[in-house]
Amino acid sequence: MEYTSLKEITGSIIEIIQVAADNSGNWNPKLKVLPEILRDQNNGIGFYLFHTQESNYYKNFPAPGNDSPPVSFTPMALNLFYQLSANSTKENDKKDVYDEQEMMAVAMKALHDNSHLKITSSGKKINLKITLQTLTPSESVQYWAASESSVRLSAYYEVSVVFLEPQKPLSYAGRVLSYGNFVFVRGAPQITSSESMVEYILPGEVVPKNIKISPAQAPINNTISFLGTGFNGGSLKILLISPLWPEPAVADAAWSPTLISENQLDLTLQPTAKLLHSGSTRSVIPGLYAARVNLTEIRSLPNGTAKTFDHISNQFPFSVMPRITSISDESGGFFKVKCEVFQHADMTRDDVQIYIGEEMLTLSPSTPSSGGFQITDPTTVMLKVPTGLQPGNVPLRILIRGIESEPKWISIP
C-alpha cells in the first residue's frame, strides 16, 4: 500500500463516476464530475469533500525507528467524508429534477460497484473502502442549511483509510536478539506533594517562626522535600525542569539529594544546575520549576548480560523564591534593598514587581520618586516609599517571575 494525498483520492473516485456517466450514453460529453457543490448553470455531478477526521485505529502506531517526535515518522491516517449531488438547470433557470435523479442513480451505482478501491488513477496501490453513510432525512437537510443552494437530492460517503506520507525515518529499530520477562512489583515512582519550611521574624521579635508551604517554595540554599511512593529500590536521579531550559537538568551532588525514607526525598536548592545531556551550566533564578524522579534498576538477562530499566515519575512543581539579603534605610523615604537577583539574561523588566503593603511600586530608569523603584545593579534596588504611609512596620513584598519573597518588613520613621 502506497501513500497518497487528498487530491489524488478525490480525483480517482471522480474518475470512476465520470467513466460511468460517459458510458451511460444519457448525456453529452460536456457533462463533468467535479469536486464541488454545483450551482446555477454549472451542470453535472458534484463529489465534494466536506470533512476529514483522523482514524483512531491507526493514531498510536509506533514509528519504525527511534526518531523524535515519533508521530512525525508515522503516516497520518484519515477518514474522508464526501457529499454527492447533481445539478441540472435548463436555459430558463428551471431545474430538471428527473435529470438530476438519473445522474445521481448512475453515480451511486458506480460507487456501489467500486466500493473497494485498490489503485489510484496514477497507478498507486491502495486499499480504500467507499461506504454509503446512513443518514436520516433531517440530518441530510442540515448539511444544506448553511449552503447558498436550496435542498437537493444528495448522498453521503465515507472513504477510509487514506494514509498521508510521513517524514523519512532517520533511524531504524534493530533486531531483538534476546528477550526476557521482568516483573516490577513497586511500579514507577510517584510524586504526590512537595513542601518546604519558610523562616521569618516578626517585627519587634527575636525568635524566628516557621511555616510549612506546599507545594514547596524556598530560596536558594534552603531545603525542599518531595513526598510520594517508590523512591527506593534502585539508583536515584532527580531531574529539574524549567521552561527557560532546552532540556532537563540533573540535581547533582551539590544539591545534596537525600533519601529520607522510601516516601520522602530532600533537595537543597542551588544557584546553578547542569543540563542532562549537554552538561552546560544554567542559572537557577526565582520562578516556577518542576522535579521528576528517575529510578534506575539493573536486571540480568537470560544470556548473562545486564539490562538497565529507567522508571520515571510524574512531574511535580516547586518554586524558587527571591531571597532578600538586606534592607537599609537611606533616609528621605529611600530604602536600599539587596536581593540575589534583580537582573538576568532570562528575565525581563516586567518580571520584577515590588509592593509596599498592597501598593505596587513603579519601575523608574533613574532616581525614583515616591512610589517608585530603580534597579541600580543586578542585586540592588533603590526604592522610595509612597507618600501618605503612616510610621511603623510595613510589609515589603518582592515578586520575581511571579514568585514572592519570604516575609520582610521595612520600618518607616
Automatic annotation (TrEMBL):
Superkingdom of the source species: Bacteria
Residue ranges of domain Pvc16 N-terminal in the record: 39-176
Pfam families the record matches: Pvc16_N
InterPro entries hit by this protein: Pvc16_N
Record protein name field: DUF4255 domain-containing protein
